[in-house]
Amino acid sequence: MSFFSQLDNDRIVAAIADAERRSSGEIRVHVTGRKPEDLEQRARRRFELLGMTNTADRNGVLLYIAPAVRRFQILGDSGIHEKAGPDFWKEVAAEMEERFRRGEFTEGIVQGVAKVGEILARHFPRAKADRDELPDEIDEEH
Q: Cα dist. 67→6, 26, 71 in Å?
C-alpha cells in the first residue's frame, strides 16, 4: 500500500480549511513520491512554486512530506516565522514525527495543521475582508 493511498485526503483538507477559517494564514500540504537529496532545498522550491511567498502577510506554511526517504520539512514564511520562532517548528515536527512512527500518517498531518492553525490564529486573526489566497487541497507529486 502506498503512502498516498493511506492518507485520508478529506480529513486533511478539512483540517486545512478549519485552520484557515480562524486566521489570514495559508497552509499547504505537499506529498512527494520522489527521493529528494536535499529535502530543505526541495521544500523551499515547492514553497515558491505553490505561490506561498505571495501571501499578503507572508504567513504561509508548508508541510512538505517525502515518505520515500521517511522525512518531512515544515517551512513558514517570514511573517509567521518571526512570530513563531524556531522552537515552535521543532515542537510541531516532534508531534508529527511521533504520529508518523506509529503509522498514523493522516493523524500526524492533521495534528500538524491544527497546531500551525492555532499559532496563525493567535498572530494573524482572520479579518472580515480576508480571502483564501491559496487552494486547500493536498499538492501531490508522484
A: 11, 23, 6
Place of cell 517570514: 78
Phi, psi of 64 (to 5 degrees): -105, 115
Task: Enter the pTM of the model.
Answer: 0.94
Q: Is 31 left (phi over 0), alpha (psi -120 to 50) or beta?
A: beta
Q: Which CATH architecture is the domain 3-124 placed in?
A: Roll (3.10)
Give CA–CA dist 5/117, Å, rounded: 25
Mean pLDDT within 26-52: 95
CB 79 within 8 A of CB 58: yes
Q: Are 137 and 13 in contact (CB under 8 A)?
A: yes
Domain ranges for the chain: 3-124
In the prediction, which pLDDT does 49 show? Answer: 95
Residue 53 banded pLDDT, cuts 50, 70, 90: very high
* pLDDT given for residue 4 in this prediction: 64
